[in-house]
Structures are given as structure tokens and as C-alpha cells.
Write a structure and sequence with these properties.
Elements lengths: L16 H24 L4 H29 L6 H24 L4 H24 L6 H29 L2 H4 L3 H33 L5 H27 L2 H27 L7 H26 L12 H29 L18 H23 L6 H27 L4 H6 L10
Helix pairs in contact: 1-2, 1-3, 1-13, 2-3, 2-4, 2-7, 3-4, 4-5, 5-7, 5-8, 7-8, 7-9, 8-9, 9-10, 10-11, 11-12, 11-13, 12-13
Protein name: Cytochrome oxidase subunit I profile domain-containing protein
Keywords: Membrane, Transmembrane, Transmembrane helix
InterPro entries: Cyt_c_oxase-like_su1_sf
Amino acid sequence: MSGIPADVDADAAPPMTVPLRHFVVALAFLVAGVSVGVVEGRAGHLAQVHLLLAGWVCLTIMGALTQFVPVWCGIELHSRRLAAVQLPLAAVGFAGLAAAFLTATPAILPVAGAFALVGVWTLCYNIGRTLLAAAPDVTAIHFGWALVFFALVTAAGFVLAMDHAVGVLPLLGIGRQGLLLAHGTLAVFGAVLTTVAGALAQLAPMFTQADTGRIDAAVQRAETAVYPLGVLALAGGRLVGSPVLARLGAVLVAAGLGAVAVLLARQLVGARVEWSPMLTRYSVAALSLFLWAGLTVVAWWNDPLAYTGLLGQPSTALLVGGIGFVVFGTLYHVVPFIIWVHRYSDRLGFEDVPMVDDLYDHRIAAVDGVAVTIAYALLASNQWFATPDGTALVAGIFAFFGTLLFAGNLVAVLVAHSPQSLPTLLTGREHTPAEDS
């Protein structure tokens, strides 16, 4: 059956409620983040960044790691209790950070930062203990490094939160701009994109069914070895103000993400399955990452320490095209897949059951894809060219419309096909097979 991989161990997965709860809460952060961008504009920039990158992307990653590390590796999750605890802690922390920035209340930041740190470190411990029993393949190595970066970025974020409230950096002898640059580097290129690279190493071949040659495997092994070191060098160089170290890291990071883009594009070109919303969005991500890597390596070589160049040039290509479209595409398969496994897999061969990609509305997926792509194009043009006043607002409206349709389409999958009701799923009660009868 199309879209159902044969080489994963679904029996090793945690209860359905654990990852799906992460994804539903993350979707709420997505809609809230886009809404803040439309309503507040630049004034809500810090709040929007934390709603989207921490709330939407990182909570999605936390749910995905909890689901697929056991599935891919065929081993039991270390602790289901810890997996259930990490979401409320991290979600409260991320929401608190956004609220503090929106209301200009720095006193909230250390409290929110502490919640976020404990929630994320709970994930790091739980998944780290699980990975210790896994074979060290490309994906597992990426995920291990991602956990290191998650731990580092939340620690740096907590120090920044304390500095906002009581000014601790002079006592620590750390420059604020250097720590901000290191925090952003560890968050985007470390925690998020290391996870993305590791996931794509599994997802792209799995869902394109394309052949992988020896050259592809060699490039992937090289990227696995040098990319995390590049992130550490770039973050470390920015923290201590060393242009030489940061420039070395910048070259490795740009080269690594360029390699990820090329490998993904090769898989998509060689795809032997029907095109789907997942693969369509991956194609946008591959092109965006490739263009970003080529433009950014020049900008970073000239000045790797500039705050304006924190995320390279253009940053929209990285954040929206590279990260956003990968998450959009992945969720369009992961959410229906989890539901399918728990609702229909036992019935396969005994009665007619839908395929994974039949669970969501393809017409809505097409419309939300067009809307988000238009928003992406408008944001990119607004960043690079002299565009008419109001372009950013129009982009925000398209983004809001597209993300609302996207979130609604996935929630509809839960409502129509989940063995549990949405309120029951969110409260965390585990589903039992007897409830299917």
C-alpha cells in the first residue's frame, strides 16, 4: 500500500496520544505565531519567533522524535511517563516566553525559560537513553547531535532570560550579542536543522522509493561527520567573537545544508511513487536550501559575526522555504500515518481500508500549499527587492489563510479517523485495542 513503509517497527511506537498531542499543540502555536505576525508586525517579532520556531517547529520535533526514534530503531522508548511530561512543561515555557515579549514583561522570562528548559531536557534525557540502545546510523547520529544542541540552546536561552530580568551577563563575563548569536545559531542550525537533516535521510528514500547510489551515501556520511562540527564552530566563534572560527563553521554549515538539499532533490527526481503533498513541499524545501546555501556562504565568508547575517541570506529561504515546508510536508504524512496504524492497520487484508494519503482532503492541501507558497514568495521579494507598502501584510494574510487550512485539514483527520475523540486525545488517556471493537 502506498505510503506505508515496510521497514519500520510500528509496534515499538509509544501510545498514539503522545506524538499526536505534541502535533495538535504545535499547530495551535503555528496559528498563533502567524496571527501575531499579521496583527503586531515587527513589534511582535520576538514573540512570533518563539511561537513559530520554539512552539510550532520544536514541539513538532519533540513529538516526532518521541514517535519515530523507537519506530525506526525498533527499540522501546525509555520512559512513556517522561514523554507525557515533556509537552506541558515545554509548551507552558514557550507560551510564557512569547507572552513576556508581547507584553514587555521581562520578569516572566526566567520562569518561562525554566519551564522550557526542564521540558526540553526531559526530552533530551528520554530520547538520549533510548538512542543508546540504537545502531549508530546516519539518522541516529543526527538525532543524537540534535539532543546536544537542544540542551545547549535552552541553557543559553535561560541565561538570556535571566539577563533580561536581572542583568547577569556582566557577572558571567559574556557579551550579550555574542550569546544572542550563539543562541540563534544553536537553535536554528543545531536543534532544528540537524533534526531535519537526520529525518530526511530516512524519510526521503522511504517515501520516494528512489535508488540511493554510492556517491549519495558517501556525501551523506561526510555531511553527518562535518555538519555538527560546523554548527559548534559557528556558534562558538560567534559567542567569543572569533571571525576565523565562525568562518570555518559557516563554510561547513552551508556546505552541509547544500548537500542535504542536493541529496533530497536527487531523491525527488528519482521518485517512483505518486506525487503527494509531502513530496511537493519537500521540493520547495530542496530548492530553497540549495539557493540559501549558495548565497549564504558568500555573505558569511565576508562577515560571519554580523547580527543581520545570523540566519544567512535570505533568511526567509531558510526559515520558510527550508524549515517550514519540510515540517508542512512531513506532518501531512506523519499525522495520517499514526492514525492509520492505530485505526486501520489490523484490518488490512480483512476489509477495505483507506490508504494513508486518503485520510486528509487533497483539495484543501492543494489550496493551503498555494496560499503558503504565495506568502513565501511575497516575503522573499519583500526581503530582497523594493516592494509596495503592504506587501508584508498581504503575505501575512495569505500565510494565515494557508496555515489555518493546513491545521484544519490535519485536525479533521483526527476528528474523522482517530480511535479517540480529540478532547480525549488531548487529555492523554491511552487508547486500548478493545476500543476499536
